Amino acid sequence: MKKQKILLIITCVMIAGISLPVQATTPIPDLLPIGQLDLDREPAQTEGESTDEEGGILGDGEETAQDVLQEDIVGAGVVLIADKTAEDYALAYERAKEANWGYTNLGISDVSDNLNIRAIAAEDGRLVGKLPKDAACEVIEMDDEWAHIQSGNVDGYVSRDYLLTGVMAKLRAEELATTVATVTTDSLKVRAEANTESEVITLVPRGEELEVSAVEGDWVKVFLDDDEVYVSGEYVEVSAELGTAITMSELLYGQGIADVRVDICQYAKEFLGNPYVWGGTSLTNGTDCSGFVMSVFKKYGVNLPRNSRAQANCGTTIKVSEAKPGDLIFYAKGKTINHVAIYIGNGQVIHASNPRTGIRISSVSYRSPFKAVRILQD
Fold it and tell me: Which residue has the higher pLDDT, 47 or 67?
């Protein structure tokens, strides 16, 4: 009996002496941002930058969760046996979350097309924008039915049923984040090769975002629709981005536009986010730029040729500044037309861009327009 009492006392002393960091007063975040946690990666580096395995720029001097914790992987199972305190984890979370594509409480639209954003939390609320499939938002607050969000230039409410949050949003964002180069000069030259002697393919205006294929020394290889081209790294800022909401002004038109033009543009936008497939003509399963235009117009009884160069010879050539919704805008590599888009008004086009973005809306001057053509004579 005396022996049992001694063992009991020893056991109590041992338990009292164990450090249990998970019981500290500072709360431990549910999950550190996915994509900041794997120390086994061997990232390639360019001068002044650190890149992750996917080529996304983390930022010069920016601390990740690993920098603070120095653990191989941080997850629920490891927290319980790690020798770090809850304060360490909270500090790591605060430092790492700002690198989580700029979102503190990330939400991702979980729809097949577009998620309606309304002015108030009600089904009959006025539409203020659309959150495309897999686009991101900042979740301000939520209840059982509605989430108050901000995305791009849109602030409003969406149904909770179609919004991923928490762990699921972070996992989806890890798959979706795209590395982009934002133009920081008034008119950026896009070249065929990574040198100043190479052909200038087009000019891109300030603020335009180009999807990054790779960083090669002083040059950044980017996607220009379905081509890979080069821009000087001196005149762009590279970052990882997620898609955002589209405002109603980007979806609507001014007065005086023929109904058929409005219908064609609205029909084309039904396929936003659908895949790009070279040589394809399916608006749902995959199409390239000319296949997209051909298939959209075919629904309205207009038969167009299969490739963009042939489409450019149809209808009537007009000035780009005269384009109305439903007119076609053509782009070229040098003097050879290699891309076509549908003008949808408000200085924007819709087009099947490349395999990474699929069907998207862009500024009409996201690259220098080569010509405009009017197919619909009204």
Answer: 67
